Amino acid sequence: KLLNKQALSYEYSNSIPLYIWLRTAGRILKHAKWYLADNVLDEAYILYCRLMDLIIDKLYRHPDLKKLKAEYSITPLSKNVKVYDEFLKLRAALPNLMSEAEKIKQVLTENYSRYLESEKRKKQLIELQELKFQQLKAQEQERIEGFKKKQENKSDQNNVDEANLSKKLRSLSNNSLSSFETLNNSNIPSYPNLPVFDQSYTQQQNQSLPSSPPPIYQQLPQLPKKPSTKTGTSSKKETVHKTVNFTEGGSPLRTIFISPNLIDSFLKLAKRNTSKKLETCGILCGKLNRNAFFITYLIIPDQDSTANTCNTKNEEKLFDVIDNLDLFILGWIHTHPTQSCFLSSVDLHTQNSYQIMLNEAIAIVCSPSEKFDKKLGVFRLTDPPGIPKITNCNLTGFHPHPENDLYVECNRLNHDNPASGHVVIKGELPFEVKDLR
Description:
Elements lengths: L1 H6 L10 H20 L3 H18 L4 H12 L4 H14 L1 H87 L18 H10 L36 E2 L5 E2 L2 E3 L1 H16 L5 E9 L2 E9 L2 E3 L4 E3 L2 H11 L2 E8 L9 H13 L4 E5 L9 E6 L4 H6 L15 E3 L13 E3 L6 E4 L2
Parallel strand pairs: 3-5, 3-12, 5-13, 8-9
Antiparallel strand pairs: 1-2, 4-5, 4-8, 6-7, 9-10, 10-11
């Protein structure tokens, strides 16, 4: 029930074009398959259920669908019809999606049952240990009480014995004293003195004894060294990265690792545009490994740039490259040649489309201008209130968003403060660059 609730907990708006939702659906399906391959069954189940809900409940009622369906019957080779084809493919995949979700649900149910049984046995064991402890405690208390009672009885008996003994001693003392006074000292026998012991004899005897030779110790053979228990085939268990960051609503955010050299490489590629005061953008892609994301590719798409905007072109080529490399889209990076590091209203809507596909997706803004002290910003939309507000915003282009809590910085400040952000900029991480311009 909890996983189903999480699956249905996402922001949806008909104001976002159908082709973007279909692209999002395709990425959700790919992510679900990745999670299933990595045996992250709970995440896979959430995404399969979310995808089915998106297709059946949301996209069926999208206003663009009716228009595309009508156009499909008239001009089946038009560009917009390709969007409708994508919808038909997703709809045809529904039986397989349901089958996969059902299989995962069965495994999760079995795992949960085993977990409950294990917890039950642990509880029973703890209760049994507590019972034994209480029994031992009661036995010890009983033994102590018995010992105290014996000591008290013994003490009472000793008092009686001492009183009797004292009485007898007083009686004996009186009798002895009267008898002793009648004795004559001359009648007391005397004993001869002991002879003086001649110590010189002992010294001579000791000097005449020969000294004993030093003892000879037989050297025992050394024990062989204990054979090593390590084998060449043994390997250290891989570390799984623990999730330590969460959204404002409590959803987990896995850690994203990125190399600072990747950011430097992007700035070098953008230098020509930057000198002309034109924006440059790139797509951040990577892999999921041990419950963390690693940005391994910087892809520069074909693009149209102005001083304040940057729009990708030939998106089919871009997504073909991403799909062929089997990558997660983990965010985007762009320059502000004449401005500081922040997310404009256009940037907010762009970032929203990334976070709809992946909760952890980030936006990196670079400000190369010497006029601004802050050169780098790593951001994500808050959830809530950022994602629901932007998802339900129907405005386009630059428009005001007076709220100041729509996005936050998510770059982890240091190792000792992991809660400061889920993005770790770390050196020596491998990456590749693909410039599609």
